[in-house]
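Work Package 3 (structural annotation) set out to generate three-dimensional models for the target panel prioritized at the project kickoff. During this period the team completed the workflow that converts sequence records into discrete structure tokens, so that structures can be stored uniformly alongside our sequence database. As a representative example, we reproduce one entry of 344 residues exactly as it appears in the project archive.
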Amino acid sequence: MPVLVAYRVPKADPAGIAARDRRLLTIAEATAEAGLLCVYECLGDVLGLGRFHAVPVVPERGEIRLHRRLGGGRPVPLGEGYFGVSLALPNPSTLATGGATRLKPEQVLNRAVRGVLAALETLGVSGYYPGRDVVTAGRKIIGAITLEIDPSGKTLVEMAVAANRSFAEVTSFLDRADPTGVVPADAVLPGHATSIAEETGLRTTLDTFADAVAAGFVARLGMACVPAEEPLPPVQADDDWLLAGRLPPHLDRYGAARTALGSLQARVALGGGRIADLRLTGDFIASAAAITRMETSLRDMVPDRAAILDRVNKALAGPMDFLLGVRPLEIIADVVMQACDGAA
């Protein structure tokens, strides 16, 4: 029976969440039959960005902080009134049930979200996972989920849940953190989002939510869940990780397309008729190694749609490679060509 070791972190520093999640993955890899579950809350207002978003420069008086996840996906609200969940697993099949020996990325999400759905039910909310990257209640968004799987198989599932403030606050967080629109995103209207408090009329504490999530994994996935014997050691803020998401100014050409999860953008620099540099940004969920391989393979090539598509397919050919939310893959070739053909 897989064992989950459960942590909870109040007053988490958003600048250290990614570093802490990397540590959780390292511990999970060393204990092959266990996963690590961490439920946390940050102070203040925090905008959670996906790994593949372009990171904006926050106005000095914006009174909002940024967190850049290890996994992709849409922007999410974090901070006071929201709970984050990190689930670190030694491999994608740790949550396998019913005789399954290997889980696809979408199956990992489907199983991991069950613990949170059970927690919501315990707290009086009928949650539903429609199979993409959001959790809903009464057809309103109450949470979001994403994952990263590295080449060795270490797997991180990340979730954000609106507890005492609506998920719709993500729109005002984006307006404050990114007034120039570096991160394209659809507005989440109040009528399209909710929270545990809105659904039940009750506020939820971090401890109550963490207990419910731990019990949810036991009930829905038959896992043993034990409290960590010691708290996680503090981690240092990883400002370099956040800064690495900034767009260099030489990527002056732009292509974009709508996708199932939001949008996909290609940021391109040309030189001598070739793709000198390129970055793919947006709301997609993918293995970071595959996207890095894809971007590297497209550099220094003469723009050609068929050749681009061929390299995109080859970059996703590995056993741990995946890309969710962008289908068909021709969309990637189209946005790269759009950027190459457009005016600088």
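The chain has two domains: 3-242, 247-341.
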